[in-house]
Amino acid sequence: MPTTPHTLPILLAHRTLAGARKHGAMSDEAISSLVNAAGIPPVLLAESGARITARQYAALYALLIEQLDDECIGFLSRPLQRGSFALISRSMLSAPSLELALRRGAHTFRLLQHDLAMHCVRDGELSGFALEARHTGTGSEAFLLEMLARVFWQMLAWLNRGRLPIRRIDFSFAQPAYAASYSAIFPAPLQFNQPVTAVWFDAAALQAPVRRTEEELRAALRHAPGNVILPRPGEHACSDRVKIILRQSEPDWLDLDAVAKCIHVSTSTLQRRLALEGTSFQSLKDELRRDLAIERLATSKVPVAQLAVELGFADATAFNRAFKLWTGSTPGSYRRR
């Protein structure tokens, strides 16, 4: 079965590096070396429309943690030393339910740092957790909040054997420029400029028992942070199926109705399920074609005209226009980097 590549905007790499730059923890030369070690050409940092693979991003994140000895990569007033999230995970592991695991994790996190408040929240049939920066206006709390929202969701999902659908995410900041890439990170409806950052689940889902062992935790920690940062199989259940079907239909590229028939649902049902994951059919198709184009330009010598046909464009001109819209440069100039 063909795989579906994932890419992320270079702006996300800049945001990730901001903590290391903030207090002069790393020089520009050291950051350039780190970026290169992650497999990212440093020249891409100057290209506003450039994109990197999810694997490159995970490598960058892991190298930052190692270099800074800080699992919050410079965004807190003092380092959250390596092993902190392992400690939080172990505090959650022996809880009888996901809700109690969440309470224990929030308590342990509060003991380890003083920049963020974390607490459990409830709203009717929804439950979850909220994160609040104690010191706002630093310009970096938005990235920190979205990073921790994903980390703690992934912890809970892992304790539930990998499955814990998000019903909604509230963010206390304005929608960032790279919000179009959020669907790869948060498969749920998003709301911005809310009173607090909060991740919401069905309240009943948090009553499920913890289904993991210490041995499984040790194995999972060996693959961190990649297994937290990168999208996992099944995380975007409907979106993943759509992308796989589209990938298999290349170069014909099935339309919405045809994909719905492949999944054995109506077109409206498919659209509704994708909306619950914070995306749409056209967005998924564009993301997949963009990521395949970037991958093939970087790893093959396929002529641009042939690549346009493979990706379902009418001609090379249409492909050039779309690619420039996606990345800010033409396929030819992107390949020459």
TrEMBL record:
Keyword Acetylation: no
Entry GO terms, CC: cytosol
Keywords (A to Z) from UniProt: DNA-binding, Transcription, Transcription regulation
A UniProt-annotated Pfam family: HTH_18
InterPro entries linked to this entry: AraC-type_N (IPR032687), Homeodomain-like_sf (IPR009057), HTH_AraC (IPR018060), Tscrpt_reg_AraC-type_HTH (IPR020449)
SUPFAM superfamilies referenced in this protein's UniProt entry, alphabetically: Homeodomain-like (SSF46689)
Domain annotation HTH araC/xylS-type: ranges: 240-337
UniProt keyword tRNA-binding present: no
Single GO term (MF): transcription cis-regulatory region binding
Protein name (Swiss-Prot/TrEMBL): AraC family transcriptional regulator
